[in-house]
Amino acid sequence: MGEAKVNGVPFLKMNGLGNQIIVADMRGRADRVTPAAAIAINATAGTKFDQIMAIHDPKTAGTAHYIEIINSDGSLAQACGNGMRCVVQFLASESGQKTFMFETVAGLLFGEEHEDGMITVDMGTPKLAWYDIPLAEEFADTRQIELQIGPIDAPVLHSPSVASMGNPHATFWVHDDVWNYALDRFGPMLENHPIFPERANISIAQVLTPDRIILRTWERGAGLTQACGTAACAAVVNGARTRRTARKATVTLPGGDLVVEWRADDHVVLTGPAEREWVGMLDPATGGWTRAEEAA
Ligand SMILES: N[C@H](CCC[C@H](N)C(=O)O)C(=O)O
Hints:
This protein is of the alpha+beta class.
């Protein structure tokens, strides 16, 4: 793949702090990027990605586009903060417009490109009830749930805070370096733990100061990533409601820094960069693609 001529849609290879994103321009079409196409695209070194952001025609009046989010294993995600910034940057560069109202499966979502090129997306309100995350059993308080990994009497990771940012997140708090933990081994087990009927994104967080968190994430359906925007949002929400952090903090991910604010109106807003790498054409049914000769 990669060489054959494809009759498809334009796509952009982008990243948000190293979170590998493909933006597929599906406007004017009724079909979808298929799970098989996602798996095929991810299997090629040049287009290995974490999420595909497929831009579709709007479904609802007052919105500019409908965005479908596809993980690299072909599963659908309800939210992707880094990917939304990439979508905003692409549409802003194309239209000159700076603000956009989108619709996703999780609801309406506002995005804005600033003068300095940074992009803010309003990720909506967090959901904190056990059945909204969702969890398989009732927990009256989701600030700390019973879940641990490692020896019973000396767990390696335990008692995460859980929250939904549209998608399910667990934040495990640690006092030492987040790189001391084998997230590549624990991530898959925790992602698929029976307590999470829809699986979950799994993060390890160290709070340095109330306005500074170090975070690593094992993403549901994508694995270890350089950055996960919704995990950064969940970490600040969980940090603030357990009094570990303020409602606004800089979150340092392997790929760089994001600023997250859980506003007084309950919305969580995420600010950070997006980077365009190259463009091509993509067959949304098969995942066949070609790269165009555009200098990024
Ligand atoms: N990378 C994304 C999150 C992907 C979510 C996905 N892994 C899931 O919930 O299934 C972000 O920047 O927010």
